Amino acid sequence: MKRHEIIKSFPALDLRRLLGRRPAADPLLGRERVRFYSSGRAALYHIVKSLDGGTRDTFLLPAYHCGVEVEAVLRAGKNVDFYRIKRNLGVDLEHLRSRIDSRTRGIVVAHYFGFPQEMAPLAELCRQRGIMLIEDCAHALYSQDAAGAWLGTGGDFALFSMRKTSFLPNGGAVLVNGSELPLPAQGKSYADFSLYKSTIKAVLEHEMSRQGGVARLCRLILDSYGRRGEQSVDSGPAAEIDDRRWYYDVPMYHYENDIARISLLLAGLDDIRSIIDRRRENYRRLAELLAARFRTQFVFPELPAGVCPLCFPLFVPQRDQVVAEMAARGVEPFVFGRLLHPLIADDQFPEAHYLADSIVGLPLHQQLGRQEMERVAAVFAEAATGDLPQ
Hints:
Helix content: 25-40%
Low-confidence stretches: 227-242
Oligomer: single chain
CATH topology of the domain at 25-176: Aspartate Aminotransferase, domain 2
Number of helices: 12
Order of helices and strands: EHEHEHEHEEEHHHHHEHHEH
CATH superfamily of the domain at 25-176: Type I PLP-dependent aspartate aminotransferase-like (Major domain)
Radius of gyration: 20 Å
Structural class: alpha/beta
CATH architecture of the domain at 25-176: 3-Layer(aba) Sandwich
Shape: globular
Mean pLDDT: 87
Distance between the termini: 14 Å
Largest sheet: 7 strands, mixed
């Protein structure tokens, strides 16, 4: 499989953004009470640190997670407990309510794959119990709820991971809603050479998808890079992560760190409306292409108004085998939560284990169009049904 044929889960860096007209102010990241950090996990770490009420404080997190958010709370010196997530990815409100006690300081609620949780009952519960409500919008930058409110504006704090929606070498953010709440401290400045290497590689990968001499040159450079056995710090969605410490400790996303200067330079250069529109168009196209054979496996049968989808999630038997076969054919899906944090025992939260073992997210980001969606759908169908070309 040639590199220029690979369809990735997240967008690549397009230097032409630097030459274009700067879009209108960002409706979320352009607000006054925003702090930038190296990643979404760093954003949560700093939120928890800003709420320092004692070492016995506990934060309730969803049982379905990718692990780094749990690490963020632990590394901030606090305790964690978990609440049940249903198979439809909704919050089990009654179970959450049962987990609250006198030590509970905050609740983290995740908007999985860009689709909103029902925030009103969560906000009311937190108000009644004097608990902080933290929205995990790592998947949900530029998504809105049914009333048109931006996700991230309904809780006390929100965290974002911008690189999943708009290419940045690294980058997370905290939005603080309410002037009476503390603004988290700034992260530590740092330099990481691997971050600059990954940025250059991302530029080359995007350029080689075009036509002409520049594309051929970029392809030649990357082919040479690959022959030397170089690898990005991100091993890709099909890779097995046997050592969870590796995944938790990627330097460019480290918990204490500030956003890199190069990421801050590139932030805010995207046309947000075009991101939302293209992702929604691609979601609808994939739904059309897959409905006849796979509609019962759609995690979200409908695309609500206002949602900016991160990917197209499906329930897939033998998910990891399907992901590996897709990656071998040049389509790299997004897998969230493959390994739950070690604090979740194998016999705990069967729903979370089912979700962790079953969901695959098909790429649909804004740099992909109709032709790519047809290829993604075809490759998925071949891998999911075993109908693979010889």
